[in-house]
Amino acid sequence: MRNLLLSVFFIFITGLSSCTKLLEDDFPEFNDDWVINNIMIAGDSIEVEITKTTSVNGKGNPPVEDALVKLMFENGTFDLSYDENSATYKLNQQIETNKEYRFEIYDASRELKTSFNQIIPAPQPILTIEHIDVAGVNDEGVSHPAVKIEVPNNASKDYFYVNIRLLERNQYEDAQDDNRIAILNIEDPILLNEGVPFPLFSNEIMTGDSQEVLINYTTSGASSSGGGPWVADTFPLVVELWTLNEAYYEFLKQNYQYENSRYPIIGSGNQAAISNFDNIEGAYGINAGYSYVKTDTIYPSGTENYFDQ
């Protein structure tokens, strides 16, 4: 019996060995195509990033330092200067809304690589805003806050994104700490219509002259007093309403699908990879932008003296 088991094991191992195939790592040559990213934010200066694609074994995207970037704006033509510190092409001119910018980009031999136009929409206002300290509870009974904003609904289609930014003590003016914010329990029909887990929306299904949008969020902790219910910690915050052009709206939606298709869950079925948004002719990259408005500091209940501590 023992000899029989050894024979079966030997045959099994031999069979597996016969199926072994050496994985080749000699990949074909990779085209070093250009990647051109032009994200324009109203009020900021102009900055265009140009890099080259690399193979799977590459380390980062090497910058293109010898391009010629021309901007046609109103009745003038401007050359963007290459900045070695940021590895981008810059022009110290404030970006304006509702005006057309035309870019032409040439390679080192001064042949036209690509050209594109850009218009940044005017920012739409936040008509009203309300902070709700306790907007709901989770399955464990811990509450979460929410922000409710009212936005205009115009005849022309608008695209929006809401950024809720917490303010850090001792960094009041230049606070950039967003890591304690998480959007959760999307239940507003305007947000649900987009199918993404962040506050991106358009006026596609809005009715009337304005629309309220409810955004549930949570921070990194909760507290309880005297054995009472657990209540989410809140902090002073500002709310930004971004008015996007259509390209930026499409980028945010497709980038979410792209990131989630890159690493499919094993056993969840076949999931085809989705390419990222790309609207640069003759190269890869993004040409998009937005304007925004932001509120004054909002103090949820109990945080009125937060910065005096």
Task: Summarize this structure briefly.
The protein is mainly beta and 309 residues long.
Describe the structure using short key phrases.
18 strands; 309 residues; 12% helix; eight-stranded mixed beta sheet; globular; 2 domains; mainly beta; four-stranded antiparallel beta sheet; Immunoglobulin-like
SSE layout and pairing:
Elements: H1 2-18, E1 34-41, E2 46-52, E3 68-73, E4 76-79, E5 81-83, E6 88-91, E7 100-106, E8 112-119, E9 128-137, E10 143-152, E11 159-166, E12 182-183, H2 189-192, E13 200-202, E14 210-218, E15 222-223, E16 231-232, E17 237-244, H3 246-262, E18 284-294
Parallel strand pairs: 1-18
Antiparallel strand pairs: 1-2, 2-6, 3-4, 3-7, 5-6, 7-8, 9-10, 10-14, 11-13, 11-17, 12-14, 15-16, 17-18
Q: Note the main sheet.
A: 8 strands, mixed
> Which stretches are poorly predicted, pLDDT < 50 over at least 5 residues?
none
In N-to-C order, the SSE pattern is HEEEEEEEEEEEEHEEEEEHE
Q: How much helix, percentage-wise, in residues? A: 10-25%
Shape: globular
Number of strands: 18
Mean pLDDT over all positions: 86
Plain-language structure description:
The protein has 309 residues and is mainly beta. It folds into two domains: 34-119, Immunoglobulin-like, CATH 2.60.40; 128-304. It has helices at residues 2-18, 189-192, 246-262; strands spanning 34-41, 46-52, 68-73, 76-79, 81-83, 88-91, 100-106, 112-119, 128-137, 143-152, 159-166, 182-183, 200-202, 210-218, 222-223, 231-232, 237-244, 284-294. The strands form four sheets. The chain has an eight-stranded mixed sheet, with helices on one face. Strand 5 (81-83) and strand 6 form a beta hairpin. The chain is globular and about 75 Å long. The mean pLDDT is 86.
